[in-house]
Amino acid sequence: MALLRLLAECESYGYELVGRLHELGLKQIHEGSVYPALSRLEREGSVTARLVSSNSGPARKYYRPSPAGYASLAECEVAWTTLVRALEPILSRPVPRRPQEART
Amino acid sequence: MNQSRVGGGDRLRIELAILRIDWELDGRIPWRVRRRLKNELRSNLIAAAESNGAMAAVSQLGDLRALGASYLEVYRGRLDARRGAWAALITYVAVQALAIAVFLAFQSGIAAGGGHGGSYELLPGFGPFQGSVNHGFEMEILSPAHLVLMLVAFLIGSRAWRALPRGIRRGGGSAAGTDWRPGP
Questions:
Q1: Which of A31, A42, A58 sits opposite B43 (nearest CB)?
Q2: ipTM surpassing 0.85
Q3: Nearest chain B residue to A66, by CA
Q4: Which of A16, A34, A56, B29 is the most exposed place for a label (fewest CB within 10 A)?
Q5: A65, β-bridge pairs
Q6: A47 compared with B75, residue with greater pLDDT
């Protein structure tokens, strides 16, 4: 979902996308997980790709969401928002020092 | 002309990493897809190497074998030619080992019986298990029977039936449907 969202904001190639994730604080996400994820999105038809020649080597493959990708992104965002809303009341409560004894 | 700030040593490091990943994909996904993936990996690694150096760029990929396996999950075709080739090779070695055992047994029998030579044919018409001992010795190294056995092993090992259109596999109906779909 994060990849689709970032690609919806600005088309990117693999390494650039990893850099954008790192800038957002997701430094634990490495190239080795992002590149296959992009391939999977492409194969699913969620993104389209185009080659753009680079002055430092082979052409770079820039991805952007396809119409199906936008639809999938909208669904994911609704599901995520619903989940966060459902969890929020639980996570907002203070954690007690000890769990309450079970009532028998 | 393209100009890169990545030096020869760094290029070599990048190519070795690509080779390692490609090894996982060899014979398992269509070569066009492999070539596309390698080009994409190369361009990403060069971009990363320009920022952080090739060593960091490669290490950021993590376990190269795992990365290859991840690509394999995405693009794996129905036919696994590598497994098929291994199955064919193992079959050949096994058949030859058996053939040599049969040959040695026959030779010992000739010697024990005080004979000077003879020929044998354990399974009539089956090349690997026939030969002769005279002044020298003869045994089949490659025969049509070898080839048929290796072909069968290849077909079983590579799960070649999975490459057939679904309709044919089910004995009729729709011929549509393959696992492999090229990306857009």
A1: A58
A2: no
A3: B184
A4: A56
A5: A47
A6: A47
